[in-house]
Design goal:
five-stranded parallel sheet; binds D-ribose
Length: 150
């Protein structure tokens, strides 16, 4: 799978760990940075990963900041993004099954590497259930359209 990954200064070590973890499994990882621990602004990397995913260039995205919250809020401003902020694997699985989430966000300061690996594993492996969940995902897309019109 081709995966976009991005992070702010608080998550450089975690990003490198997860990127390597994915590459060892044979995934193609496009790293949008940052690789610096100098203070930066997480919306920059949220936008890069979001655009890589909604354009279809990458199948899924992974975003990491201190808590995962700011970077997920920013990514969800990009039309077509369904970014799920998770801190345990059950939510990472359910957000694929029910929300067809296309980006996983988590916090480098709130989640350890073993939990992060498991969340990434289930996020990439779990298919969307469709059915009644498709209707709800379609309603989210309609909300985006309404914001454009009003
Ligand atoms: C950066 O200090 C921190 O605010 C950021 O990584 C993130 O936690 C924001 O939601």
């Amino acid at each position: 799978m081709k995966i976009a990954i991005g992070n702010d200064h608080s998550a450089v070590t975690m990003k490198s760990h997860i990127a390597e973890y994915l590459r060892v499994q044979g995934h193609e990882v496009i790293d949008f940075g940052t690789d610096s621990t100098q203070s930066t602004d997480y919306p920059i990397y949220a936008e890069k990963v979001a655009k890589a995913v909604v354009s279809g260039d990458c199948e899924r995205g992974i975003l990491i900041c201190g808590t995962g919250i700011g970077i997920s809020i920013a990514a969800n401003k990009v039309r077509g993004v369904r970014c799920a902020h998770c801190s345990e694997p059950y939510s990472a699985k359910l957000t694929r099954q029910h929300n067809d989430a296309n980006i996983l966000a988590f916090g480098a300061r709130t989640v350890g590497p073993a939990i992060a690996e498991t969340m990434v594993d289930v996020f990439l492996a779990t298919p969307f259930d469709g059915g009644r969940h498709q209707r709800r995902v379609d309603m989210i897309a309609q909300l985006e359209e309404k914001q454009t019109i009003e």
